Structure formats: structure tokens, C-alpha cells
């Protein structure tokens, strides 16, 4: 029991001690979370931990560590506290019926103050302020409905929507939530489709250009490469996608969109293209 307690406390120190450099405002603006490619061992046994790399440091889910090492991890919504119990065995969290699960079908989720999001790390995150949602100071107005087709989209690559993740991080005392926005991911994809239909390198004689093996000229994925740290842009500007295609109308393309919250307050919807 003492060994389990000591190991849990040491690992907790590792987790809470891994912070980013620079002021919190800079961390919020440039925070990039990519899946880690590293392996994790408990003594001499490899364990399966979902980890993300942020500025060279690995961040793992505390509940995953608790399950691997068999210590208790609980969340007190009343005090917004995570409780670690080294002398208690691990137990799965009982989900609250009042919590919201992010839609996985690509439909639109418009956050509301008071929404409680079920995060991928097993915790809950309460949204307190959405006054900035779809009201970016630099935007000309709300983003509106999704683009309508101006060509036959079925001729292009048809990537599957990824999981609508809810990644929860605490960096330098700031409580962040990154929610993968599948609805806005569809906006980026449909904008790219229409741009491809208007580009002579990707659309000729009423048909989509294809590679010699018969596959689409552009291969499209709706996540970023694990090896790349890609900066985002906001607010939404369709011309960013169009200009990117004009500059490089070939190869493998990656798109993704995240809603970013800090201490419960909606900050921005961040678009990435690579």
C-alpha cells in the first residue's frame, strides 16, 4: 500500500509539474496539443496511456493513471476539485445526467452558459460565459449556415469525421478546454470542395482531376499530422482556404477546428489547415 501511495504521489508531481513556459496569455494563444508517440511503462510493464504532447511535455489523463496504478480519482463539482486518494482502489466515474456530451455526428453544438461538458479525461468542465461565441471582434458577422455545393462534391475525397474530443488541460493555473468542432470542420471541408471545383488544377472539363492510380487528386484528413504543430487562425475566413489551395493545389491536406475555453469562458473557434 505504501509503495502504491508513493508512486501515485510521485506521478502526480510529474503531471502537475509539467507546465508551459511564458505567460498564460501566450500559452493560451499558442497552445498546441498533439498525440504523443512515446511509450509508457509501469515498472517493467508497458501500459496503455492516451497522451498528448504540448511544447515537448507529455500530458496524460489522470484517470488513466489511476486505473493503471489502482488509486482513486474523483471529481467534486461543487468545489470544482479533483480528489486523488492513493489508499482507495480505482473506480469508474458515475456520470451526471446534467452533463452534455458533444455531438459526434457533425451537427452544430452552440454552447450555453451553465453547460457541463464531459471531458475525455473523465472530468467535467462547466462553461460560464459564451458572450464571445460567434461574435469575434474581427469578424464581419456570424459565420452563418454551411456552404452549399457549387460542384459535384462526391467526386472528391470523402474523409470520415473524427471523434468530437473534449480535451481538458490546466496550464499555469488556467483551466483550458479544447472541444473539436465537427460542424465547423464541415464548413472548412465544404469550402475546400467548392474551391477545388473552381480551380483548374483540381477540376477540368466538368470532372475532378484524379491521380494516375484513380484516387482523388487531393487526399483530405480531418485531423492534423501528429508530427506537426500547426498554428490556427480565427475568425473564420473562407479566403484562407481558397488561397491555400491556389498556392498548393495537390498533395495531402489536413483540416481541423477547435472551440477554445479558458476558466469556463469561451475564447474563440480556431481553424487549422495544413
Mean pLDDT: 84
- Biggest β-sheet description: 5 strands, mixed
What level of helicity do the residues show? 10-25%
Q: Count of helices?
A: 5
Topology, number of strands: 16
Uncertain stretches of 5 or more adjacent residues: 1-29
Termini separation comes to 49 Å
What is the gyration radius calculated from CA atoms?
Answer: 21 Å
In total, the number of domains comes to 2
Strand content: 25-35%
Give the helix/strand class.
Answer: alpha+beta
Shape summary: globular
- The sequence of SSEs as H and E is HHEEEEEHEEEEEEHEEEHEE
Task: Outline the structure in words.
This protein has 274 residues and is of the alpha+beta class. It folds into 2 domains: 2-85, no CATH class; 116-273, no CATH class. The chain is 21% helix and 27% strand. It contains 5 helices and 16 strands. Strands 10, 11, 14, 15 and 16 form a 5-stranded mixed beta sheet that branches. It has a 3-stranded antiparallel beta sheet with strand order 1-4-5. Strands 2-3 form a two-stranded antiparallel ribbon. β2 and β3 (45-47) form a beta hairpin. α1 packs antiparallel against α3 (62-69) and α4 packs across α5 (238-247). The radius of gyration is 21 Å and the shape is globular. Residues 1-29 have low confidence and may be disordered.
Amino acid at each position: 500500500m505504501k509503495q502504491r501511495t508513493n508512486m501515485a504521489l510521485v506521478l502526480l508531481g510529474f503531471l502537475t509539474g509539467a507546465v508551459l513556459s511564458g505567460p498564460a496569455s501566450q500559452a493560451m494563444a499558442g497552445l498546441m496539443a498533439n498525440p504523443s508517440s512515446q511509450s509508457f511503462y509501469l515498472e517493467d510493464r508497458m501500459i496503455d496511456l492516451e497522451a498528448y504532447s504540448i511544447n515537448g511535455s507529455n500530458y496524460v489523463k489522470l484517470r488513466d493513471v489511476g486505473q493503471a496504478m489502482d488509486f482513486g480519482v474523483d471529481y467534486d463539482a461543487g468545489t470544482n476539485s479533483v480528489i486523488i486518494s492513493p489508499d482507495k482502489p480505482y473506480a469508474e466515474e458515475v456520470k451526471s445526467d446534467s452533463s452534455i456530451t458533444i455531438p459526434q455526428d457533425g451537427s452544430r453544438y452552440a454552447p450555453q452558459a451553465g453547460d457541463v461538458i464531459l471531458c475525455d479525461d473523465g472530468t467535467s468542465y462547466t462553461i460560464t460565459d459564451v458572450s464571445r461565441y460567434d461574435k469575434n471582434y474581427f469578424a464581419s458577422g456570424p459565420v452563418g449556415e454551411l456552404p452549399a455545393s457549387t460542384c459535384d462534391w462526391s467526386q472528391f475525397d470523402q474523409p470520415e469525421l473524427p471523434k468530437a474530443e473534449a480535451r481538458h488541460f490546466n496550464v499555469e493555473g488556467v483551466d483550458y478546454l479544447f472541444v473539436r468542432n465537427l460542424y465547423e470542420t464541415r464548413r472548412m471541408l465544404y469550402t475546400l470542395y467548392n474551391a477545388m471545383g473552381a480551380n483548374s488544377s483540381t477540376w477540368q472539363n466538368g470532372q475532378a482531376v484524379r491521380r494516375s492510380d484513380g484516387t482523388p487528386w487531393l487526399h483530405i484528413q480531418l485531423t492534423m499530422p501528429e508530427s506537426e504543430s500547426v498554428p490556427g487562425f480565427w475568425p473564420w475566413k473562407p479566403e484562407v482556404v481558397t488561397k491555400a489551395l491556389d498556392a498548393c493545389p495537390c498533395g495531402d491536406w489536413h483540416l481541423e477546428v477547435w472551440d477554445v475555453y479558458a476558466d469556463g469562458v469561451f475564447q474563440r473557434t480556431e481553424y487549422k489547415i495544413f
